[in-house]
Amino acid sequence: xxxxxxxxxxxxxxxxxxxxxxxxxxxxxxxxxxxxxxxxxxxxxxxxxxxxxxxxxxxxxxxxxxxxxxxx
Amino acid sequence: xxxxxxxxxxxxxxxxxxxxxxxxxxxxxxxxxxxxxxxxxxxxxxxxxxxxxxxxxxxxxxxxxxxxxxxxxxxxxxxxxxxxxxxxxxxxxxxxxxxxxxxxxxxxxxxxxxxxxxxxxxxxxxxxxxxxxxxxxxxxxxxxxxxxxxxxxxxxxxxxxxxxxxxxxxxxxxxxxxxxxxxxxxxxxxxxxxxxxxxxxxxxxxxxxxxxxxxxxxxxxxxxxxxxxxxxxxxxxxxxxxxxxxxxxxxxxxxx
Lengths: 72, 256
Hints:
heterodimer, A: mainly alpha, two-stranded antiparallel sheet, 2 strands, 64% helix, B: extended
């Protein structure tokens, strides 16, 4: 799963620590999600979407394998 | 030591050694570099230890250890309620540092290589903890505190030697299990308080540590007839703690 968290965060001029504070998680977790090393749970994904005032689909996208599976 | 000798005023291991052995040179031959000895020092800083030959003295010793365990438990409960895990870690490190300071000041012996290593390690960990504390990140400080606390086991088994202690002394000795239970409960509560990524990482690390320890125990069981005995009562929890740390690194690198 790829995501646009880094872009959305930059638009709001938030640091990783600030976003982590808003989400109630650690800064390392935000970093791991941004870099694609960790896929958040559905509740956390909803929370991320809520913090950015958007929907999950606007933030997260399936990777190439997931996209292929969805199209087929 | 002569049978029936009662060793008094053992504030720390060196005092006990001094009271036990007539020769000062015995202190030099004492191998501080061995972790077992260091753990003994840390333990004896908190508990009055090893009374031999006198049932009454032994009973007092067991009661004192029970009191020490109760104090430790109280400290842990207070730490839990006030979110002061870092203080516990700092306290244990302070005990460690004071042990080496005591050695240096009291016997005027040069610090051993192991002492220097441990002092540097303690300083490094202390700096890390202070930094974590300043950032408000208290999660894995607790793990290190638990690791150090795990290095302070009580020797309640002394009370179970046949006919050596009255029944109530055995009950007091059982109090030494309280810190272990508190530690387990504290660890579970701490892991549950972590965010989902660290919780998942910890669960994987714990599973890794559990299975690896099981394999190590089985390996020892197979190799024991050949004379290989590498897991003693205190090395086993230490091994689990180390494997937990290794598992954390492994699990963090294999997220997703």
